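hi! just following up on the protien thing from before. the input was this:
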Amino acid sequence: MHSLNRRDFLIATVAAGATNVLAHGSWAGTPKTQPHKALIGVPSEALLKEWKEAGFEGMESTDRGASPAKAAAARKIAEKLGMRIHGVLYGWANFNNPSAVEGDLATMETALYAAAAYGADTVLLVPCRIGGKMPEAWEFDIRFDPTTGHLKQVVSGDNMPFTDYIANHNRSADASREAVKRLISVAEKAGVIIALENVWNNMWVSPEFFQNFVASFDNPWVRAYFDIGNHVKYSPPQKWIRTLGKLMVKCHVKDFKLNLNGRGGNFCNIRDGSVDWPAVRAALADIGYNGWMSIEGGNLSPKEHSQRLDLILAGK
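and the predicted 3d structure came back as:
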C-alpha cells in the first residue's frame, strides 16, 4: 500500500504542476517534457526483459484480478530489471446497468488493490457504454449544462431523432458518477488514481464535455486517461490534450487513419495514420506532461514500436 494521503497528494500535485511550468515552459520546437515509454501486457520476467532491451521503461498490466501477493511478486521482478508496472487496465464497466453495478464495483476494488501491490498509481476505467441511434462522429455539435453535465443538444438543428440517445446519455452519466464516487474512498486507501477513459463508448465525445465530467468529481483520485487514436474521428487529439490539461494523468499512444473524406477510417500503427504527432507532442509539452505513454495495439515488434515512439517524443 502507498502511504500517500489526500492532503499529501494535493500538495504533491500542486508542487509538480508549478515545477513543470517553471522548468519546462511552453513548446518551442524542442521537447520540454520527458514522458515515459511503456507497452501493455501481462507481467512476466521474460516479457519485461524483452521490453527493457527494446527501450521501454514500464508496463501497463491487463491482469486486473491479480492477488496482492501475485502483483507484489511481479513488482519485484520489474524493479529488479529497472522497469515499472505503472498502471492496471480494468477497462469496461457497466455502471448504467443496475444488475451489474455491484459486481463491477467489487472487481474494480480488486483492481485498485492489485495496482497498489504492483506499485502502480492508476487503474484505467471506462464507466459504461451506450448504444442506439446517435449522430455520426462528424455530425456532433455538443451543447451541455456545465452544472449538471447533462446534454442539451448533440447536433445543430433538429435533435428529435436523438431524443432517446440524449436521455440515455444523461442517465448513464449520472449512474457512472454515483458509482465512481463510491470508489473514491477505496482509491484513496489504496493510493491509486481512478483514471477515466471514454473509449468509443459513445459518451463524452467532445473535449469540453469529457473535461466537465472528470472535473465534476473535484477530487485528486479521479482523473482522465486519454487515448490519442480513439479521438481522431471527433476532433484533433492535441485539442483534447490541451482541454484536459492537468486532469490528464495517463496517455495511450495509438494512431487512426481517416478516410480521404475525413469521415471514418481504421486504426493503424503509430506514425502511419492521421495523427499530427508534432502537434500532439507540442500539446503534451504545453500542459507539462511527464507521465506514461503506453502504446496500445499495432503489429510492430517492441523494438520498432520503441523507435517510433522515440521519434514522437522528439517532436517528429
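The chain has nine helices and twelve strands.
The CA atoms of residues 106 and 183 lie 9 Å apart.
cheers
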